[in-house]
Design goal:
There is one protein chain. With about 325 residues, the chain is α/β, with parallel strands linked by helices. It contains 9 helices and 11 strands. Bound molecules: S-adenosylmethionine.
Length: about 325
């Protein structure tokens, strides 16, 4: 097979991201152009059963990694495993776990069972992470694309996520219906998806400036709307699966320039992936450095204290139509006696 050559746009992007390291530039491009099999992460929705799946040695994983997360050996598929068929595990890219794990840093100052909105939720990976890591008293998983709602509801039901509802609203509409109502808003934003290349998925034009610019504009709208749903002292976790600074640090920077009531928060356990591309905290995951395909995360907090706001929380604060579509956990199979 002939070796793929990077386009000029990819080369330009690699040299901007790794200005000081020709080695990183080359390794990054190789990870995108000649992707090797990767192991997906697995999230247990029940207590983890060690040794049941073909996973990498736990001692090679970060010590802070939640007990319910494992990393499969490269190329291992789990779709026919008993745990999967029983709805006990969910598989997702390892970078989604790293980026999503920033929500652990949001636990400080949140109620023990927070009220969580997942604004861009399908197929459900971040909602499942939130359910396992934070045990929300209410999880509203919103997906604007009708054709992706089915898979979202299926995954939440299959994995028996508790206290969950779904919706299909534009972010601005949701923000108008539920201002200041959530403790945490997850925004796993639609993006140019440059990291898909590291999974061997074709994504033509993902480095093109017009693709990046269009996504950045949409991401800022979504972030501004999501921020409106969060109470004082509450958090927004912004994540993408792309490397373009304009869609990551650029969006956060533009948001902060206007939203002076928000600040960006450090996530100490992600320090080794700190982005050098901005003067506020943010985390970059690259496919030549981690097991996952890559992405970005930044954790924001609305300044103040949740007691400052009269309008906060409790299911009763959400207008009833928002909770019209409960997720019904799939029944557990009755064991044959
Ligand atoms: C990266 S995916 C989300 C992945 C999901 N959070 C997970 O972990 O499984 C981004 C989602 O945003 C949705 N989306 C597209 N345009 C949107 C918009 N204007 N506002 C909100 N969400 C949008 C897409 O349909 C897609 O499901």
């Amino acid at each position: 097979m002939t070796k793929k050559e990077p386009s000029n746009l990819m080369r330009k992007s690699a040299s901007a991201l790794f200005a000081d390291s020709a080695t990183d530039q080359g390794d990054f491009l190789t990870a995108l152009l000649d992707p090797q099999p990767r192991g997906n992460a697995v999230l247990w929705t029940v207590p983890r059963r060690a040794g049941e799946l073909e996973t990498v040695d736990r001692s090679t994983l970060p010590v802070w990694l939640p007990d319910k997360v494992e990393l499969l050996q490269p190329g291992v598929k789990i779709g026919l495993s008993p745990a999967y068929l029983a709805g006990e595990i969910y598989s997702l890219d390892y970078s989604s776990v790293l980026a999503g794990s920033a929500m652990l840093a949001a636990r400080t100052g949140l109620p023990e069972s927070p009220q969580v909105l997942d604004l861009c939720a399908a197929p459900g990976g971040k909602s499942l992470l939130a359910s396992v890591l934070l045990k929300p008293r209410l999880l509203l998983s919103n997906e604007v694309e009708a054709k992706r709602l089915g898979i979202l509801r299926h995954n939440l039901s299959r994995c028996r996520v508790a206290n969950a509802w779904t919706q299909r609203l534009a972010p601005e509409e949701l923000a108008s219906l539920a201002p200041l109502a959530f403790d945490l808003c997850l925004i796993d934003a639609p993006c140019s998806g440059q990291s898909l290349l590291a999974k061997g998925i074709e994504n033509p034009g993902c480095f093109h400036p017009s693709t990046v610019k269009g996504n950045a504009r949409r991401q800022l709208w979504i972030l501004e709307a999501g921020a409106r749903t969060v109470a004082a002292g509450g958090y927004v976790l912004y994540t993408t699966c792309t490397f373009a600074p304009r869609e990551n640090e650029g969006v956060i920077g533009k948001f902060l320039a206007k939203a002076t009531d928000f600040e960006v928060i450090e996530v100490p356990h992600l320090a080794e992936w700190s982005s050098p591309l901005a003067d506020f905290p943010g985390y970059r995951f690259y496919p030549h450095q981690i097991a996952g395909a890559g992405g970005y995360a930044a954790l924001l907090r609305r300044k103040g204290n949740r007691n400052d706001e009269p309008a906060t929380t409790g299911r009763g604060d959400l207008p009833p139509p928002l909770l019209d579509y409960p997720v019904v956990p799939s029944p557990r199979e009755v064991e044959a006696s």
